[in-house]
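Weekly structure sync, notes
Attendees: PL (lead), two postdocs, one rotation student
Agenda item 3: pending single-chain targets
PL asked that the sequence for the first pending target be pasted directly into the notes so everyone works from the same version. It is reproduced below exactly as submitted, 284 residues in total.
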Amino acid sequence: MAERTKSSRFSPVEGSGTEDEILQQEIRTDWITPLCLVGLSLISVLFIRSAQAYVGGSQWKMQIVWCGIGFSVYFVASWINYQIWMRYAHFFYALAILALLLVFSGPVLYGAQRWIDFGLFKFQPSEIAKWATLVMGASILARSKVGDLRDSLRGIVRLALCFSLPMFLIFLQPDLGSTLVFPPIAFSLLYVTRIPTRFFIATFALFVVIIGVLGWDVFRYYQYKSENPRPSEATIAYEEMSLVPLKDYQRKRILTFIAPEVEDPHGVGANWNRIQALIAVATG
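Predicted structure, written out during the meeting:
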């Protein structure tokens, strides 16, 4: 039985190489990811060191410590058999969803419920939910049939349901930034599973439509505020009449990114952080 399994696993395929070559391909090491992480970590340390050059701050040293801890966790996790993560994916995912639900019984900080207060520290479940959803999504696709678009549709739907629940809970906190992290994770998983190109084309078209709707909503928001003599009342009224479920501060962020001189021409409001960031980079 063992020999039959072995021969079926390494059945000769034209151009696939010998059994030893296949084994070497299976145990190959990914060097690109850790190199990218090292590069990003170095950039973060240099930026913090540069920002504190005139005041003699030492937070950049703490950044090195955190980078070291992060790399240690990364390498330990990379040595664990991936099948263990797949086996307990449902457990990790359920814990993440439970933590996201517990958030709504926690404190309201800065107008949002994103943390669970443990007294000595506060925990943000959305960060763990990103990882747990990634593992759960990989587990779903590993057990799904992937072929043409029709065969892959069932796995895509299951993956969409898997990602929709944490995205919805995080959006309700509200935390738009963390919510927008999930779609790239999902599409990365679909890309490595070799989903047909037509799916990505259709999804990109849908993405363009969504961006268009958001752009039109933000334009109407700015226009509505400009025509109303009382901007504070206008923002409340627009939120009630708009069909797009965005908060006022979220529309301001989008408008500041697209047209900062329009939203905050004097740089004392929503555009202040952007201007200060440009000054910090320009001054080294």
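Discussion points:
- Confidence is low (pLDDT under 50) at residues 1-17.
- Residues 116 and 122 are 6 Å apart (CA to CA).
Action: rotation student to compare against the earlier draft before next sync.
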